[in-house]
Amino acid sequence: MNNQSVCAQFTAAMAALSLLAACGSEAPPPAPPPPPAAPNAAPRASAGPDQSVVEGDSVMLTAAGSVDSDGTITRFVWSQTGGPAVTLAAADTASPRFVAPDIAVTTALTFSLTVTDNAGATGTDSVTISAGVSDTRIFTAAGVIEGERGSDGLGVFRGVRFAEAPIGSRRWRNPEPVAPFSGVVATRQFGPNCFQIGSEFLVDTSLTQNLSEDCLTLNVWTPTANASANLPVMVWIHGGGNNTGAGSQASFDGADLARQENVVVVTINYRLGPMGYLAHRLLNAETPTGTSGNFGLRDQILALGWVESNIARFGGNPGLVTIFGESAGGVNVCNLIASPLASGLFDRAIMQSGSCRNSLQLLSGTTPLEPQSAIALGDRAAGLLGCANVTDVLACMRAVPVAQIYQLLAPATGEFPVSGVQTTTADVYGPIVDGTVLPQTPAARILTGAHNVVPVLLGSNNNEAGLFRSANIVLAGTVNAYQASVARLFGANAPRVLAAYPASTDAQALPAFERLFTDLNFTCVTRAAARAFGGFAGPVWLYEFNRFPPALQNLGAFHGLEIGYVFGTFNPQTFQAADTTLSNAMQGYWAQFARAGNPNGGGRANWPAFTNAGDANVTLASPIDSATGLRRAECDLLDSL
């Protein structure tokens, strides 16, 4: 091969290589575009099935059926779109809750659910909740309670808590309002009786059963739960010497009074005996006012505060509240009239066989009639409980079991053990002039016009002493025993008293003593209270109850007998048609007084107003009659001694 041929081949090879290099430097052809992505599927929201509930029910909404086919639901949002507003708890969760509201008619509540997935897509759904009305549920300020309603339409709510339990560190402290609660609390059973021990004069033996320190409850009987009914409210304060009793006693059943007179009836419990009225200098130091001891009275005041805040929901008018009570309950009505802490909590007052005291134990200091102060009694109690010389006296006292407290302190069980004639070694625990709850004795407050001025109806029974017959026989079973008892009580004035209440034979002694007992403890002190009230409240309405069925003729119109007539709770098998007639009239008088501050109306016999000049009263008997000068000569004498 010649050189020219070799060169030509080399040149051609180089050209081919050059062409190959040029081809390698070009960009590859573009890849084909990917297929379009499938669109994001929106989540499907499910607000659950429609529901039917009752007001007060705790209702759960549910988004459990919500799904997202190609992702995850990351957010739930609930909102209410119709019906009375409710509060949704955890509205940004799948299953929020709310309480079906207080309503007057069946109401539809609608809620919207929005769900969002992780791509931001949303879905919506809604649900309707039909809320029905309950005629047994009441929305109190603290929570929903459920009572019962009879075929007659009467609503009854038993064992309604109005204060926190006064136990543990709350023992011997001022009561605290009941704390808010959730759910629906059943109030169909009476609460426990406040702790107490039996008395020889205690007729209702059930009072010493079902005892507890946790006892601050009340009971309500109402013809309607219509909040616009504005019915008169009658709050009963039970008797028992501030040492026994309960608002649940059968004789205080409010059904008949509420039904017959279209009023709301409330009965209350309050702490009794040493649990309700023990004072101590260290207890004083726990309070802003530096006082202690009137815990039972403060319980009553707190109960009235509960009534003021809640009774409209039961159909009652909080501006038309009457307090009424018998025996120590009547005494406590006067204490509340005298207490500045009860100002504005009631509008009428009825005192049955219990009046205004002109002598009460002082928190500190003594008087001729009260030689031991409440603080001194508290020191004695601490010693009896074995706590006087420990590092923490109050912790020690609060740790003693309540039953043991009553065993060790052995308190007196009544305010009228034997009319002051027979002394007792038992300590008496009761209301105290403490400067706060009671700045003075009730009688002193009223005489100076410093009390809560309201219309007052008050009275006593013709033979109050009949209830205490067993003790009276000991004191006055013979003429000699009677004369000796009068001498012990009246000293140098005994001859004047015996002349006014004569007894020359053994047969005459007991009736004379019981007449004296009744006048001294009830009739005359009630008249004195009527005269004191008459200067400020006017008018005042005074009565004497003097009716008893033949089966009880031996005892006469004894202490507490009128209660069954006021509440309509006496056994008709024991009583007569005339008793039913009188009961109906008394219920009418009491309820009309609660409405208008005047017992007259409704075709009943006229009840003349009491004035100091006119001295009028009504005799509640068969028939009902009016008179003037009830026991005037005898009361004038006793008032002068």
Question: Can you tell me about this structure?
Answer:
It is a single chain. By secondary structure, the protein is α/β, with parallel strands linked by helices. It folds into three domains: 51-134, Sandwich (Immunoglobulin-like); 135-432, Rossmann fold; 455-641, Rossmann fold (3-Layer(aba) Sandwich), CATH 3.40.50. It is 29% helix and 19% strand. It has 17 helices and 24 strands. The strands form six sheets. An eleven-stranded mixed sheet has the order 9-10-14-16-15-17-18-21-22-23-24, sandwiched between helices. A four-stranded mixed sheet has the order 1-6-5-3, with no helix packed on it. Strands 7-8-11 form a three-stranded mixed sheet, with no helix packed on it. β5 (107-117) and β6 (122-132) form a beta hairpin. α11 crosses α14 (506-534), α12 (479-490) runs parallel beside α14 and α14 (506-534) packs across α17. 44% of the residues are buried.
Keyword list:
Rossmann fold, disordered N terminus, eleven-stranded mixed sheet, 17 helices, 19% strand, Immunoglobulin-like, four-stranded mixed sheet, elongated, 641 residues, 3 domains, alpha/beta, 24 strands
